[in-house]
Write a structure and sequence with these properties.
The chain has 239 residues and is mostly helical. It contains 12 helices and 2 strands; from the N terminus they run βααααβαααααααα. Helices cover 60% and strands 3% of the residues. The chain is elongated and about 65 Å long.
């Protein structure tokens, strides 16, 4: 998600032009801001929904309105506003615009793309990504997208809760991940998935689930090793 909403210069306009509506229902003033926001989103290499940038910009600007945007300092001149410092109602409008414009197909594509950039394992299967996109409700996706506005990385509790929600909606993902990431066969992966307790799942979600991680509590590390051994996994093949 773009860290800044930077509105580049779009040229001046008089009061009549500001209130005139464009063909899509935006006033010319709103359209100028939406166009500038679109250009910023498209140019941001970290923004994952480039194909939906126009829709996201115009939808969020339409909801917020020219008066509020002007009050906040947005205009046809450059305005740099850290997203984390924007009022909650602005963040809410932008987040809802992302969900409305990207849709489940866009979210699924984003999940696969993000997993492909993770050096720790194989990319998520498209079928699993589609399950996540369709299986989580709007509130859960809202919290996920909204977290991108935060100045700090979401904490481990949020990550664990989101991971738990994913496994509840799409339990086969853990099985497929064990097969794709660890090279386990179907039987081993299903056994291991069924053996892991909620505590161990939270451990994976918090980023502390690597076998070599020295931060893993000894009792949990022992349970983790036991689960692998009981499922017939040769630990040497995981190295």
């Amino acid at each position: 998600m773009t860290a800044l909403l930077v509105l580049a210069a779009c040229g001046g306009s008089n009061d009549d032009a500001e209130s005139a509506e464009s063909s899509d229902g935006l006033s010319s003033g709103e359209q100028a801001i939406a166009d500038a926001l679109t250009a910023e989103l498209v140019s941001d290499p970290e923004f994952p929904f480039v194909d939906d940038a126009i829709c996201i910009s115009e939808t969020s600007v339409s909801v917020i309105g020219l008066d509020k945007l002007t009050e906040l300092g947005f205009s046809a001149t450059s305005v740099d506003t850290p997203a984390a410092e924007l009022p909650e109602e602005i963040q809410e409008a932008f987040t809802n615009a992302v969900l409305d414009c990207a849709g489940t197909s866009g979210l699924a594509a984003y999940i696969v793309e993000a997993s492909a950039e993770d050096d720790d394992g194989a990319p998520l299967r498209m079928a699993d990504a589609e399950c996540i996109a369709n299986g989580l409700d709007r509130e859960q996706w809202y919290e996920f997208v909204a977290s991108s506005f935060e100045a700090e990385t979401p904490d481990d509790v949020f990550a664990a809760e989101f991971f738990s929600a994913i496994l509840t909606a799409c339990p086969q993902i853990l099985v497929n991940s064990f097969m794709d990431d660890l090279g386990l066969d179907q039987e081993q992966a299903e056994c291991l998935s069924g053996s892991l307790s909620d505590t161990l799942l939270d451990l994976f979600a918090s980023g502390s689930g690597e076998l070599e991680d020295n931060d893993v509590p000894p009792e949990l590390f022992g349970d983790l090793i036991s689960a692998f051994v009981d499922c017939g996994v040769d630990l040497s093949q995981l190295e």
